[in-house]
Amino acid sequence: MQTATVLRDFPGFFSKFPDLAPQQQYDVLWALLEKTEVSQLRKIYSKLKDFLSFDIIGNLPDELVEKILQHLDAKSLCSAAQCSRRWNVLSNKDSLWHRLCLQENMVKYEDLPDPSDEPTQQRPSSPSVKDSVKFPPLSFLPNTCHWKKAYLKGKRLHYNWTKGVYTVVPLLRGHKKPVTAMACDGNLVASGSSDNTVRVWHAQSGCGYYTLENASDAITAIALKENILIAASADTMIHVYEANTGLFLRSFSGHVSSIEVLEFDGRTLVTAALDLSVRVWDVRKGLLMHTLIGHVEEAKCIALKGCLAATGSWDHTLRVWNIHVGLCKYTLQGHTEAVFCCLFFGEKLFSGGGDGVVKGWDMTSGGEILSLEGHREEVYCLQVNDDIIVSGSADSTIRIWNYDGKCLHNLEGHSGVVRCLHLNENTLVSGGDLKKLIVWDLKRGEHYFIYRQPVLIHMMWVDCQRIITASPDAPGLICIVNFF
Question: Percent of the chain at pLDDT above 90?
Fold first, then answer.
């Protein structure tokens, strides 16, 4: 039957159709479509698809499209990329994703290697792994722009840290006695032991790299920075190596008793020993620059910033030294027991002591600006950022303070001494007795998860990818927990 004939048989249909209500029009059309063959539906669809589709940016120049897409968040940009080939290209630009990385502090993940690029092996993992979101390896997204990859790495890391998704590298074994010192630069881990050796490991894989056996006594302190490895020992010697190769560079001494603590900024080394002296060295030349005398008992901690070094001592005081000229700038008195930890932040110095008090000091005047009381026992570790001060104590608690002196949170979860803290944006990592590592949500004052290590903890190093801890047990062991 010809189309014209069919139309003549329904003279009133087309004239009345526009007068129907929208729902009635829908019902009539749907009734017709239900009676239509599939082959005819395909023909109808081929006619309708171009009519119905509307590309809002189809006729706009790329420069203007980019201005529009700059107003989208990451989730919307990913959705836009799925609309068409052109939208995929336009939403996959470094300028768009770099802006998002800056907004959400993801720039630091730019050079992070994709986990799929690392050799894989079966490793113990967290219970959360089997239920976690499966992120595709970035190698599956070959055309993804550089800054989008950085953003995706950051999101994956944040998910793993907050959900407790990790793998555990097999314990690093080799030391015959306890580990007494540890340092890491993100690529290498260096550990010193009372077995007189230094061992260097690959941070990602945990594989042993080399062993150094130059010391004649226990290793007491280690620094690792800018491809320089420094090991100090109880025999008063300081040995310097090229970190990437283990090449011995030089050794020197000056203290007359065991070196207990040190700090290194890449060029200048500050050491403190049982002889009560603090010494300043030019490491690259192997020269003693200054010998600083003032403490009447041995120093327990050192902080270093530019031309200033701070030392906290068993004599209840902190001394702030100008290490360029070798003079004591301030003697800070306020603690009533030994000072166990100190750190610089901006123009301030913070300290924690055996009196359970955290103090803040102004480095422009040397005056005390803050005294935080609440811990019932010794404060052994501190962390600080622009908004808060975090202290860990032998009373098993962690306290979070604001700069007005108010305790915002009193975190309870450890049993025994809280020995180590690391503060990273809104996440806090703490290590303590009974083999406990806890990752905390700072905003809520609650823990994300608790990891109980197979070994005790007395030292800890943390970056965005992993937690590395050293055990005081014999033989000495290193544990690496990877989140990426």
Answer: 72
Closest listed residue to residue 399, CA positions, set 427, 420, 368, 374: 374
DSSP string for residues in 50-73: HHH---TTTTS-HHHHHHHHTTS-
Q: Please check whether residue 203 is in contact with residue 461, taking contact to mean a CB–CB distance below 8 angstroms.
A: no
Angle between helices 62-69 and 94-103 (to 10 degrees): 20
Write down the mean pLDDT value for the chain.
90
The radius of gyration of the chain's CA atoms, rounded to the nearest angstrom, is: 32
- What pLDDT is attached to residue 26? 84
Tell me, what's the pLDDT at 302? Answer: 98
- End-to-end Cα spacing for the chain: 69
| Residue with the two structure tokens 């031309």 | 307
pLDDT of residue 484: 83
What's the confidence (pLDDT) of residue 6?
Answer: 45
Return the structure tokens found at 41: 């539906």
pLDDT band at 137 (very low <50, low <70, confident <90, very high): low
Amino acid (one-letter) located at 367? G
Distances (CA, A) of 230 to 212, 253, 284, 427, 474: 11, 13, 11, 30, 23
Q: At 100, is the secondary structure helix, strand, or coil?
A: helix
The answer to whether residue 431 scores a pLDDT higher than 90 is: yes
Cβ count within 10 A of residue 386:
7
The secondary structure of 148-212 as a DSSP string is HHHHHHHHHHHHHHHHT--EEEEEEE--SS-EEEEEE-SSEEEEEETTS-EEEEETTT--EEEEE
- Encoded amino acid at 448, one letter: Y
d(CA 98, CA 226): 28
Q: What's this model's pTM, rounded to 2 decimal places?
A: 0.84
What is the band of 31 on the pLDDT scale with cuts at 50, 70, 90? confident
Rounded to 5°, the CA angle 69-74-78 comes to 80
DSSP state of 107: G
